[in-house]
Amino acid sequence: MSAARPLTTLRTIAVIATLPLLTLAACGYGSESKDDDTSKVAAEGKKLSADTVRIGYFPNLTHATALVGDQEGLLQKELGGTKATYSQFNAGPAEIEALNSGSIDIGWIGPSPAINGYSTTDGKGLRIIGGSASGGVKLVVNPDKVTSLKDVKGKKIATPQLGNTQDVAFLNWIAEQGWKVDAQSGKGDVSVVRTDNKITPDAYKSGSIDGAWVPEPTASKLVAEGGKVLLDEADLWPDKKFVITNIIVSQKFLAEHPDVVQAVLRGSVKTNTWINANPDKAKAAANEKLQELSGKPLPADVLDPAWKSIQFTDDPLASTLNTEAAHAVKAGLLKKPKLDGIYDLKPLNKVLTAEGKSTVDDAGLGIK
C-alpha cells in the first residue's frame, strides 16, 4: 500500500464520469431536502444587497459548521438585516440541482458533488469558496471475523452507494492491496456491498456484512454495536487532512451579491473558531440541531467518538482535491476534468486576513 495519498484519490471523481446522479456527498442518506426557514437569531440591522440568502447543508456531523452556525445564529448575525433561510439535503445531486435552479444560493457539500456540479456545467455553475471539514471516514469491521487489514480479502464490506465518495475510496484501497474487484458489481477478492448508511448498522448486526467503509456518524454507530476501527482514512493522507466538506456558491449569486457571500464566509470562519474553542458546547449545539431536524439526538457513545474524528477548518484543502482528480484520471475512471477556476478564495482570504488568520491556497485551481 502506498504511503502517500492513493486511498482517497478516487473518492471525489469516479462518479463524475460514470454516475453523475448518484449520491456523491460524503454522508448522504437519500435525495430529499427539508426547508427550515427559521433562524436562532432574527435578521436585524443593516440589510446587505439581498433581502434573503438561501443556504443548504446536510444534517450530518461533517457539516457541523453549518449545523452550529444555524443553531447558534452565528451565520445570521453576520448577515444583519439580510435573512438566512436553510434547506437540508441528504444527497449531493439534490443540492447541486437546487443550486443550479436557484432554489439555494450557497451550500455546504462534499467534494464529489462539487466537482460534478462544476464539470457538468462546463465550469459555469458554481465556485468552491471555502472549506469546512476534514476527516471523519473509517473502515470498521467485525473483530471476530477481521483482525488485520489482510483479513479484509474475501469479506463482505459495505459502502454507502455505488460510486459514492467512500465507495470509490474503498475500491482504490482494494486496488492498492493488489486485489481485484469489479467496480460495477462489487464482486471479486472483496465483496463490496452497497448499503444505505441508514441500514448499515442493522446489516452489521444481522451478520450480512463483515464491516463497512463509511463516514461519521455511521462509523461510530458500528463501533457502538461492537465493531472495531481497522483503518482511519485520515491516516493515509499527509498531515492526516483531506477535504470532506466544502462551501459552494452559485456564480450568479457571487457576482450579484459579493457582500452577502462575504458575510456568510465571515459567519463560517467565526463559527469554526467557536467550534474549535468550545468543542463540547459546539458538539451539543450540533446534536441539538440534529435532534430538531431528525427527531432524535445521537447518543453519547456515537456522538463523542464521531466528533473527535472530524477536523473543522476554513481551508478547503485544495491540493487534496487536485490529487483526487489526478488519481481518478490515472485510474482511467475519468477523462481529465477542467477544474481550473473551480475555486474563488478571494472573499474567504479577505475574511481571514481581517480576522488575523492565515490565508489559504487554491492549489492553482482558482479563477485567473
Describe the structure.
With 368 residues, the chain is α/β, with parallel strands linked by helices. 38% of the residues lie in helices and 18% in strands. The protein contains 14 helices and 12 strands. The strands form 2 sheets. Strands 1-3-2-4-11-5-12 form a 7-stranded mixed sheet, sandwiched between helices. Helix 6 (165-176) links the parallel strand 7 and strand 8. Helix 10 packs across helix 14. The chain starts with 13 loop residues before the first helix and ends in a 14-residue tail after the last helix. Mean pLDDT is 87; it is low at 1-32.
What are its keywords?
globular; five-stranded mixed β-sheet; alpha/beta; seven-stranded mixed β-sheet; 368 residues
Number of E-type strands: 12
Please give the radius of gyration in angstroms: 19 Å
Alpha-carbon distance between the two ends: 37 Å
Parts with pLDDT < 50 across at least 5 consecutive residues: 1-32
SSE topology string? HEEHHEHEHEEEHEHEHEEHHHHEHH
Would you tell me the structural class of the helices and strands? Answer: alpha/beta
Helix content: 25-40%
Shape: globular
Please identify the oligomeric state: single chain
Overall pLDDT score = 87
Strand coverage percent: 15-25%
Q: How is the main sheet built? A: 7 strands, mixed
Helix count, per DSSP? 14
Biggest sheet strand line-up: 1-3-2-4-11-5-12
